[in-house]
Amino acid sequence: MWAIRRACSSYKKQVFMNGASRICYTTSEISSQYLKGHNEGASNVISHRPLTFRGFQLKSHGLFIESRSFSSQAGTKSSGEEDSDSDDGFSELESSTATEAIEEANKVDESVSEQELSEEDLENVEAPQELELSDTETETEVSKRKSSRERVSSALYNAIVAAPALAVSKIMDKWVEGNDVTRAEVAAAMLTLRKRRMYGRALQLSEWLESKKQLTFTERDCASRVDLIAKVRGLKKAEDYVGIIPKSFRSEVIYRTLLANCVAEVDVKKSEQIFNKMKDLEFPLTCFACNQLLLLYKKTDKKKIADVLLLMEKENVKPSLFTYKTLIDAKGQCNDISGMEQIVETMKAEGIEPDINTRSIMAKHYISGGLNEKAENVLKEMEGGDLKENHWVCRSLLPLYAALGRADEVSRIWKVCEESNPRLDDCVAAVDAWGKLHNIEEAEAVFDKMTAKWPTLSSKHFSVLLRVYANHKMLSKGKDLVKRMADSGCRIGPLTWDALVRLYVEAGEVEKADSILHKAAEQNRLRPMINSYLVIMEQYAKRADVHNTEKMLHRMRQAGYVNRMSQYQCLIRAYINAKVPCYGIAERMKADNLFPNKGLANMFAQVDAFRKTPVSDLLD
């Protein structure tokens, strides 16, 4: 019996329609749990065509869910960051493959300051980390592969970053005069550029190699190009490139790469179209593709998760560690702790032990559910017998213990870090942890140690302390820190803009926050984070400022963000607070392929200009 079925004690029948034929399937309790109704945050983008694979149609339900959690990873949007050669990277469930409290515990290092990078290279922090294409790799294999990458030293990479003002094509034209362009050298350079999120430079390198015919392009090279184009120029350009790839190279790996980037952008319609395209091309259904759908629906429509599980069962697709992590996180987001634990037990029964990342997810949800004792037990398991031997776990433990309010444990773990020469990501986690514990003095002390040890910190690292100041409404200190960043030569990007916006919003200066965001979007080619827009939009809605709430929605669309249910909920609240009717809101949502749930329908009634009331009936 398939692994997911073992997690259930009963079965529930689901009926799926495919053309004229009516096919019945049994699904487990774990699937039916995802079909439970939710009162808040319902949303879905309905595709024009049913999501199918080999005749099996994923059902579209009448009620939909959107989770606005700040947790999870592969697809959460993620906030994956750059590594340094001297420090171990620590990747979590989503950071695509990303979602968001866990991601905050997972920030990784960079030794190259953003000052060294061109604006084109400073991608939106919500973009996914390097695409992982393997369905079967174990955690140990991934760790070994990533560790080997960190040891790679590339002379080509060094030449590229040494001249940030020059186009890569000019650098390469000079490079070939005295050096051979080997696949090994190019691979090492590409890996390092990706690791540092220098996607613009990596794309330029790929284009030069092809134009100069320095290497014979393979299927994987084309997949890499698709990924880079999607990150730098957007999904439309990436899809256009797929159309010109030689047909012999247009394999499943090409489309799965495009699918992963659509999911990272939370573009439900496009993701489902690509999935259907893969079906039309008769590619075998892979765990990777199913995991991408799970990530997508975890964020947008959790009830469709059950349909994906049924599809995996029908096609005999074995769930991976990543599959279980996604399901565990989805259950935790629904506050279904017993369901989360049931999936963990199923995972163990299948011979897959929870890794550190899985335990981090569990601990986070235990904390959110107020189950502090269970959370502490998980944290002790993560710590192992000797924390000094498992030093790399500190970066995860620090923010989790801070969320528990355990200042004593944070102090103990940070002491272990100090005794064993803390890495940059340890320091970042400590600053964040002390900030959550409202110990500003300790947070500043750790940050001072960071600046003393690593003089060329990037704006990402400054932003950690800036967020602490924002959360404590310390406007003056926040301003001083930003000046300090500028003096150090840091290039300010989306993370810093977001922290600045929150700093001014918390201080009650919403208009100033709006002005900062507007200037940042106008003067830079980088896209601000969507949360930067939302936090301002929510403030305008609270003030019943319909005009500015509408303006923020428009600016999000201009920035390339797809409208979601949360934006419309915020907009309708503005109209409700202003006590004015909202004309055509249902039609606007329909144009965005959004279907309201019961809660939002009730909000509609409050802003319906033509609704009937007892008083209006009397007057009529």
TrEMBL record:
<dbReference type="Pfam" id="PF17177">
    <property type="entry name" value="PPR_long"/>
</dbReference>
<feature type="repeat" description="PPR">
    <location>
        <begin position="320"/>
        <end position="354"/>
    </location>
</feature>
<feature type="region of interest" description="Disordered">
    <location>
        <begin position="71"/>
        <end position="148"/>
    </location>
</feature>
<feature type="compositionally biased region" description="Acidic residues">
    <location>
        <begin position="111"/>
        <end position="124"/>
    </location>
</feature>
<comment type="similarity">
    <text>Belongs to the PPR family. P subfamily.</text>
</comment>
<dbReference type="GO" id="GO:0003729">
    <property type="term" value="F:mRNA binding"/>
</dbReference>
<keyword id="KW-0677">Repeat</keyword>
<protein>
    <recommendedName>
        <fullName>PROP1-like PPR domain-containing protein</fullName>
    </recommendedName>
</protein>
<dbReference type="InterPro" id="IPR002885">
    <property type="entry name" value="PPR_rpt"/>
</dbReference>
<feature type="domain" description="PROP1-like PPR">
    <location>
        <begin position="251"/>
        <end position="413"/>
    </location>
</feature>
<dbReference type="InterPro" id="IPR033443">
    <property type="entry name" value="PROP1-like_PPR_dom"/>
</dbReference>
<feature type="compositionally biased region" description="Acidic residues">
    <location>
        <begin position="81"/>
        <end position="91"/>
    </location>
</feature>
<feature type="domain" description="PROP1-like PPR">
    <location>
        <begin position="436"/>
        <end position="575"/>
    </location>
</feature>
<keyword id="KW-0496">Mitochondrion</keyword>
<keyword id="KW-0809">Transit peptide</keyword>
<feature type="repeat" description="PPR">
    <location>
        <begin position="458"/>
        <end position="492"/>
    </location>
</feature>
<dbReference type="InterPro" id="IPR011990">
    <property type="entry name" value="TPR-like_helical_dom_sf"/>
</dbReference>
<dbReference type="GO" id="GO:0005739">
    <property type="term" value="C:mitochondrion"/>
</dbReference>
